[in-house]
Write a structure and sequence with these properties.
The chain is mainly beta. Helices cover 12% and strands 46% of the residues. The protein has helices at residues 30-34, 72-76, 87-92, 101-104; strands at residues 5-15, 20-25, 38-43, 46-58, 61-66, 82-86, 108-111, 116-125, 130-135, 141-145, 153-155, 160-163. It has a six-stranded antiparallel β-barrel with strand order 1-2-5-4-3-6. It has a six-stranded mixed beta sheet with strand order 10-9-8-7-12-11, with no helix packed on it. A hairpin with a 4-residue loop joins strand 7 (108-111) and strand 8 (116-125). It is elongated. The termini are far apart. 20% of the residues are buried.
C-alpha cells in the first residue's frame, strides 16, 4: 500500500454468532472508533479493506459488524490481526496536545536550559496519565509523566520535546 497506515485497533475475537468482531483499542479513542466507515486489516503482510456496518461498545471493547464478515468463522480468520487507518485521517481527529506515539518515539528531549537529556524510547500509560520513557546517553531509562506541567513543549516539526527537569526526574 502506498498510503501511510497506523494501527488503531485489534480484532480480539468474535462476538455472538452473526460475524461481529470484538475489538481492542486505545483508551480515549472511542470517538474515532464509533465514526468508522472503512478500515484496513493486515493479515499475512497484506491489507484488506473492511466496511463498517455498525459499532457499539460493551465493557471496554468495541463490537463491530463488518460487511465482509457474516459468520464466526469469518471473524476467526482475522483474530489477532491489527486494524489500520490512514495516518492523515487519524491526525485530523487528534485534539490539541494529543500526539501519535509513532511521532513521539525518537524525539530528542531537552531541559528548559537547552541541555539534551536523551530521546523518547517508548510511550506508555498508567492510571493517572501517559508516560514517556526517555533514554539518556548512558542508556539509562527515565519515566516522565506526559503532562503539560512537566512537558510544556512538544515540537513535532523540529522533533524535540522540552521538559521541566524537576529534581529527581532525570539525573
Amino acid at each position: 500500500m502506498s498510503v501511510d497506515l497506523i494501527s488503531v485497533a485489534k480484532i480480539l475475537n468474535f462476538h455472538g454468532i452473526k460475524g461481529e468482531a470484538k475489538l481492542g483499542f486505545t483508551k480515549g479513542s472511542e470517538n474515532r472508533i464509533v465514526n468508522l466507515k472503512k478500515i484496513f486489516v493486515k493479515k499475512d503482510g497484506n491489507y484488506k479493506e473492511l466496511n463498517v456496518v455498525s459499532v457499539r461498545f460493551h465493557k471496554h471493547f468495541a463490537i463491530v459488524k463488518f460487511k465482509e464478515f457474516s459468520t464466526v468463522n469469518d471473524v476467526e480468520l482475522y483474530k489477532g490481526c491489527d486494524l489500520y487507518l490512514p495516518k492523515s485521517e487519524v491526525e485530523e481527529s487528534l485534539d490539541n496536545d494529543e500526539y501519535l506515539i509513532s511521532d513521539l518515539i525518537g524525539m530528542d528531549v531537552f531541559d528548559e536550559d537547552g541541555a539534551c537529556l536523551g530521546s523518547v524510547s517508548a510511550v506508555g500509560e498508567n492510571l493517572a496519565n501517559d508516560i514517556i520513557e526517555v533514554t539518556d546517553s548512558n542508556s539509562k531509562k527515565h519515566l516522565v509523566p506526559f503532562v503539560k506541567a512537566i512537558v510544556p513543549v512538544v515540537d513535532l516539526k523540529n522533533k524535540r520535546i522540552v521538559v521541566n527537569n524537576i529534581e529527581g526526574l532525570i539525573n
